[in-house]
Design a protein that fits this description.
- The structure is a single chain.
- The chain is of the alpha+beta class and about 260 residues long.
- About 30% of the residues lie in helices and about 30% in strands.
- The protein is built from seven helices and 14 strands.
- Strands 8, 9, 10, 11, 12, 13 and 14 form a seven-stranded antiparallel sheet that branches.
- Strand 4 and strand 5 (about 40) form a beta hairpin.
- The termini are close together.
- About 35% of the residues are buried.
- The site of uridine-5'-diphosphate has 14 residues, from strand 9, helix 2, strand 12 and strand 14.
């Protein structure tokens, strides 16, 4: 396992060379960062839960015709994915005002937006992922107009689907971030959903209590991060009652054995 070639190490995930050409292994870490990595920590068991949550969501999206990079789960922290060329744009979809939207525009957190907003950010840690407009994307050639049309269409469909999925388990989908990648087939490429969808990149609020079930617990020092991620997994049907600790114990046991 240690002899595998590492392709890239990000803040919450590591990519390794996959078993066959055109594939990669995506490994989910427990590391958490916020505010462009100025705040660092770990959320115990996060990687195990995000691996499962993202698999579940990508599989459901695949079933409604959204192409994704997910191939199959390999083990508790790893999934096999298709290798793509990441489009250097973070796509944020917002249904409710929160986070930077509230800060920049002075709109109270929790305000339902009269219509869904899609925002784009340029993926560049050194620049702090600045917000950009379609004009910048076209001007600097980060994606073609056709790719941006496909990305916006998929973002809206994903949002519609996820709003319903989470509403069904008593969770309000406030906002979330998506990343897309180009899949090359000979000289032709198409964009597919990449990265992950998990409480790391979504704001998920309990519908009755308003409790935050996402990375804001870490960003805002609210505590109970691991429990919040477990609660999302449990409501999605990925953990049975009382299963969470067992899953996390199994994982630490595995780590102790150096597997
Ligand atoms: N988000 C993310 N990665 C980023 C920036 C934002 O996953 O680098 C997600 C974040 O979790 C939230 C949504 O995108 O669900 C909107 O984030 P916002 O712009 O409010 O920024 P934040 O307050 O998270 O810095």
């Amino acid at each position: 396992m240690s002899r595998r070639r590492m392709i890239y190490e990000g803040k919450a995930k590591i990519l390794y060379e996959g078993p066959e050409p055109g594939t990669l292994i995506q490994y989910f870490k427990d590391d958490a960062t916020a505010f462009n990595a100025q705040k660092k920590g770990t959320i115990s068991g996060k990687g195990v839960l995000n691996n499962r949550i993202s698999e579940h969501i990508f599989t459901l999206l695949g079933a409604i015709g959204i192409p994704t990079h997910f191939v199959r789960r390999l083990n508790m922290r790893e999934q096999l994915i298709r290798q793509v060329e990441i489009v250097p744009i973070e796509v944020v979809v917002r249904n409710v005002a929160a986070g930077t939207l509230s800060q920049r525009l002075g709109i109270e957190e929790g305000t339902q937006l009269p219509r869904t907003i899609i925002e784009y950010y340029y993926k560049d840690d050194a620049l702090g992922d600045p917000m950009i407009a379609d004009e910048h994307i076209a001007c600097f050639g980060w994606a073609s107009q056709e790719e941006m049309n496909d990305i916006a269409d998929m973002a809206i469909r994903i949002n519609d689907f996820l709003c319903g999925l989470f509403a069904g388990i008593g969770i309000r989908l406030v906002d979330f971030k998506l990343e897309f990648g180009r899949l090359w087939e000979n000289d032709y490429s198409r964009v597919i959903l990449a990265d992950e969808i998990s409480p790391d990149g979504c704001r998920l609020w309990d519908m009755s209590s308003g409790e935050k079930l996402d990375k804001d617990r870490f960003r805002r020092d609210l505590g109970g991060e691991a429990e919040a991620y477990q609660e999302v997994a449990r409501r999605l049907g990925l953990l049975k009652e009382g299963d969470a600790n067992m899953v996390l114990d199994l994982d630490s046991h595995r780590k102790m054995r150096g597997k």
